[in-house]
Design brief:
This protein is mainly α. Helices cover about 85% and strands about 0% of the residues. The radius of gyration is 17 Å and the shape is globular.
Length: about 180
């Protein structure tokens, strides 16, 4: 039943079932899958509450959870804490096979570095995310986001023409993805 709710993206019902079952791996996987939608929907309180149900070891040992925590910290304005969490997440993800999570974490860290005015580091992370995406053509959504993030960074650096090219490319990719 929980798997059905996951397929339907009814995260709350799936979480309720997985929490009652008590399988930490299923809860962690659900948090990982649900986090993009919860973040975009501004549901940081729900996401944080779900993460808080995880044992401390699970939070510290799953780099994809650290990345999500870094994103929540960024959105709450805790930029230094966000950067530290994302650095730890990326270090752990480089040792795993979680390519999507690595790309997403690089994009997230690029955004944090841009907020901090560290444009060189922001560009490096966006470029690495794009390079990994080029090796994994199925990651179209993440490629579009990496292009957008790089375009915004170029804009803030004052490279308006290059920025516009990348932002148009990102928009075209997002439009294809609907």
């Amino acid at each position: 039943l929980a798997a059905y709710y996951v397929d339907q993206r009814d995260w709350e019902r799936a979480m309720s079932i997985y929490s009652r079952i008590g399988n930490v791996d299923q809860v962690s996987d659900l948090i990982r899958d649900a986090s993009p939608g919860l973040i975009l929907g501004g549901r940081l309180v729900t996401l944080t509450e779900w993460i808080d149900t995880l044992p401390e070891d699970e939070k510290k040992n799953r780099p994809e959870i650290l990345s999500i925590l870094g994103t929540v910290a960024m959105m709450r304005g805790a930029i230094p804490q966000s950067l530290e969490l994302l650095n730890r997440a990326i270090s752990g993800l480089r040792k795993s096979n979680l390519i999507q999570d690595l790309i997403a974490s690089l994009i997230r860290r690029s955004i944090v570095n841009r907020y901090m005015g560290k444009y060189t580091q922001a560009m490096e992370d966006a470029d690495e995310a794009l390079m990994i995406c080029s090796q994994h053509p199925k990651e179209k959504r993440l490629r579009a986001e990496a292009l957008r993030v790089k375009g915004v960074t170029l804009y803030q650096k004052g490279e308006l023409r290059n920025s516009l090219v990348l932002l148009h490319e990102a928009l075209a990719k997002y439009q294809v993805l609907k």
